[in-house]
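Hey team,

Filing this mostly as a record. A colleague (T.K.) asked me to run one chain through the structure pipeline before their review meeting, and I want the input and output archived in the tracker in case anyone asks later how it was produced. No errors, nothing strange. Just documentation.

Input sequence:
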Amino acid sequence: MARVKIGGHLILSYEFENYRDTYWVSLSKFIIEKYGKKEFDEHFEVEAILLDCFQFLVDEFKALIYEEESLSFFNYVFYLNEESWDFLIKTRSGLSFGEIDENDFSRYRRILKLVLEQGCDIDLIWGEFPTSQEVYRMDEKIQKLFYLGIWIYTFADYISFQKMITDAKKINFDDNDYIGVYWKRHYGESYAQLFPKTEDDYVKGVFEEKAVDELKVAINECFEIDYDFAGGLIFEIKKHFSKSKFQTIEPYVLPINLLKKYSIDKRVAECFYDGLSLSRENKMSIEDVILKPYSTERYMYRPILIYQVAGVARALVGEGKFGEAIYVLATNAISWNTIPLDWRENKCMVKYMSRKGNEHDSILEDKVEEILLSKELRFCRNIKSFKRKGLDNINIDNEVAGEIDFIIVDEERKRIIVADSKYNKAKYEAVGFRTDYTNFSNKYEPKILKKVDWISNNKLIVQEHLKIIYKIEELDISKFEVEGLFFINTPTFYMFNGNYKAITLNQLDNYLSSEYQEEKVKYTSEEGQNYLIEHPYFK
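Output structure:
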């Protein structure tokens, strides 16, 4: 087990060889006893086995955590989590990850949070300050949890892909009776070629630079407090007892002390802190945390951990985590109509959330417009009606078609692009991709189809509208092809497998160029036949 120190911060690195013989053997034996040893490729049977594997690993993960009765263990995990945040901040300022794999580090942080959340369920004792031998024991346990956690998230991804793609996976066993999960058909080649190329799409997505400051202003106005004071109050109370970062406080004192500063209703003060608190009353199960990753009932968004220690509620709060929570709330929740459930009592906060939700598509649309102007393409944006000379406008902002975000005329390639913008939340795992895939397939596709059909049947109306707004006499788009399209902010699985193309902001300039060529995946079948797979790549 490797303990690594980079930039002054302690990180536990991922090692798996020591635990494969324990957990992978047990998992494989469990599946063989239940289903038999053979190759499985029938869709629903494979899905059932994947779900059983996921639950088996979750149960092993829980069992390890629930062995712990002392606050000391969770204090140590808390310390590692705070160290990981401080280290992450430094990497954003140029510090190298060194020997740590960046993807493993991301999973490491996620699993530390998962462990800390489970502590809410346990009736803890105070415990002693750990000896070096006890720290070694804790390191060993955290390494086991790291191993199990990575495979829990991996199987969650397997399940999501199996649900999104018809017959995505097959399962078999090697000569050592180890279970293996594999892609079917050409899907492995498609995944390996396409997904690594999305890295720049994440980096170059639109980001609301003032999101955190705006959220703080909204909190100040809606709760009639000062956010920085209310947060700082936690750490001032901690210092009253000791300077230890592990110092806990009784959570009920927070609203009481806030009321000494502000003349607000007690319930308002309680609501503020409740929205940032995670306890056994509102925490999610491990299964739900993984399979519903964008709920705010998680430590990711709620930095005040409330543990039961010696029969008394005690709040454990880290300065790093408190800062991270407001950041993720501002950048990964509010604009998608999501706030902590407790804050929904505050009508002002609900109003702010709704306003941000209505605004966020326009942020992406503004960037798209900049690219269209630089390409000198004719387009119209947020079209609710079409102008006509000497006649009333034709309204389409109804069941006829609905508002269209962009209509773009590409004269060089003789096409009319009908596009809707979707400022999608950044997702990095198949569980999140599946949410997008469902939304695009079931909600957005029927809408874009209706718009494409209307434009296809009314090209002359679009043509007249463009002549009027651009003040031109010559324009003929009557024989142009009509193409439906989605503009998206960050990559998601739908872009590789949807009935319509979805283009990230990073790809848009290239997509609109005359030299654009759609990516093809090279695939050689087991029979030796060579294929070029085109979009959609997983059908």
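Quick notes for T.K.: The first helix runs from residue 17 to 35. Residues 377-533 form one domain.
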